[in-house]
Structures are given as C-alpha cells and as structure tokens.
Amino acid sequence: MQRLHARYPFLEAARESVATEAVDLATVVEQDRAVVDRARQRVITALEAGSTGDPHRDARIELLSYPVARVLVSMVGERVLVRKYARAEAATAYERFTADMADTTELKSVESTGLALEDLLAEFDLRDAVRESGGDGYRIDVGTYLPLAADLWDDEWRLVNQPLDAGDVPVDEDDLLTLLREAIRSRIEDGLPFDVPETIATGLEDDAAEIREVLADLDLTQDIDTVVPDLFPPCMKALLDQIQKGEHLSHHSRFAITAFLTSIGMTTDEIVDLYRVNSSFGEEMTRYQTDHIRGDSSPTEYSAPSCATMQSYGDCVNKDDLCERIPHPMAYYEQRIDDADDEELEDWRENETDDQSASGD
User: Fold this and answer.
1) Do both 161 and 262 map to the same domain?
2) What is the mean pLDDT of residues 14-33?
3) Which of 245, 252, 257, 336 has minimal Cβ neighbours within 10 Å of its Cβ?
4) 134: domain range?
5) Looking at residues 191-202, what average pLDDT do you find?
6) Is residue 139 domain-shared with residue 272, that is, in the same domain?
7) Its pTM surpasses 0.85
C-alpha cells in the first residue's frame, strides 16, 4: 500500500489498492485495534477540530482507518456528522495538496507522496473542463463550476457575481484549488451514510457510542439564526406550547427551552417577551436567567440538553421517526432546517414584527 494512498485515501487508486489487497473489514475491525482507534480519532477530530488529526506513522493503518471511519459515520447516521466529517477530510486533503504544490524541492523520495494539480484534475475528470488562460489564471466550464461552488456560502462564489465569458468562469489558482477541495468533499460525502453489515457493526458499537456522545455534547448550531417553531423538535415544540398557554414550567424544562432558544439566535429581549404570558413571569428574574444561560452574566454559555438528559427529566415527549436517529435537539433542528424548502423557512420573529407594525405598535 503506497504512502500516497494513505495520505489521500479518497483517491480511486487508494480504493483499488485496498480491494487488490483483499482486505476484509470485518477481520480488520476484529483483529486490528490500531486501525479502529485511528478511525475513531478521524471522526471525533473531524467533529471537534474540523480536521482528521495527525496521521498514523504506519501507512497501512492510516489507509485502512479511512473506510472504517466511513463505517463509523454510517453507524451513527447523523446528517450533521456526515457533513462535518466530509468537510474535515476535504480540509485535511486541501492542506496537504496545497503544501505539495508549493513544494519546489527537486530531491524527491523514490516513492512520491505528493499530488500535482494535473493529478487532481485527472482524478475528477476535469482536464477538459479546466483550461489555463495565461499567468496564474484558469477558465472553468460553467456547467462544471456550478456544482463545485454550490456549497460555498460567500457571495463571491455566486454565478451572478462571476464575469461569465463564453460559457466559462475565470478563476485564479487559489479559487481553483478551493473548488477541487469541494470536489473531494462531495466524493467523500457521496453514499454516506450506508447500511453497515452486522458482522462489521458488532465490533464497532462502543466506538460509535463514543462518537454519539461527542456529537451530543457539541454546540451544533453555530450558524443557525432562524426561528421556525414548526421545525422544532417535538420536545421543544411542547415546551414552547406550554409557555404560550401560560402554563408553569419546572426549572429543568425552563432551562431546556431557554437554552434552545438562545442557541438558535433569539435575543434576551425576545425570550423575555415570550415568557410574559406565563403566570409565573417575573421580568427581572427571566432576564437574569436568560443572560446567565447565554453566558452574558456567567463564564459559561450553556447549550440545550441532549436527548438523553431530556429523557431523564421527562421532557422527551411526542417522539417521531427522526427522534429515533438523533442524539440532540439541536441536531434535530439543524436537520429539519437543512431539509426544508426556502418557503418553509419563514422566521417567526419576522411575523411578529409584521403583526406589530400592522397593529400600530
């Protein structure tokens, strides 16, 4: 097994290398703990740091840890994990191939571990779609550009902001390498999660459980600032309904819904206003508690409780099919947001503002 394949396990040649060696993953999982440990590290480091961690010094262990990591991601089966894992693998690959391309050292080892730009273009069948245009510039066919740039959020990547010319999008070398990173991410994400045979899954249950625990403890909503109650997990929808009916909430229930609402972008003022209809409402205390949970008046920013904690307090109610596969209310909400059409993503706060304007408030 070549060191190049261990360094870039997403390559078709790496997959073929594993197939040629007739590696049986069930046997690897059962007999080679070093591979499983490295696979688990890949996934957990992807969640916690956005990379895949330090590579193992043994090329065989490093290469085999990649398919086992994909098995672990599939066993957990959470979309947020799939996305974060694929991005981390792609980010690690990007860091490596940009370093390879910047290396001008002529003294190479007999067995090359680096990738050139031409290698990556060939890997993703982009040689015909990408052409040099003089200097450090390139031109990429618009039909190829669009899917590669689809997951890049900055406005600069939108086609309307590109100087389209004769069906081509001009890009510099840095932009092209970013698009190649997206090609890698897309390949890694493709097919995940998949059904894992029981013969393999049995030996990885403890490792998958550890990943689920890490996933449950993470703040999964850094980029969410959308309040759509119809998409809330059933537990939070039920607590919100109790508030709006003016019912009394226990301390743990009040903490759970308040932490959830702060995590999805609601301000202290908005949350205080929400509680006003509650019979036990006290503005000063509600504001203090909300600021404390948010971290404004305490050293800790609290996240919403995990599903396991909600269950222990009796707040896990009205479970649906998605609840069975989700370890955290925030993961549930993020997936519902991801799956929703644009017309479903009407922020509740905007409706409140419109209602107040219409009433002259």
Assistant:
1) no
2) 85
3) 245
4) 117-179
5) 92
6) no
7) no
Same domain, 60 and 123: no
Q: Is 307 annotated as a binding residue?
A: yes
Tokens 């922020």 locate to 347
Which is more confidently placed, 105 or 58?
58
CA atoms within 13 A on the CB side of 202: 6
For residue 249, say whether it is annotated as part of any ligand binding site: no
- The domain total for the chain is 3
Residue corresponding to tokens 């404390």: 292
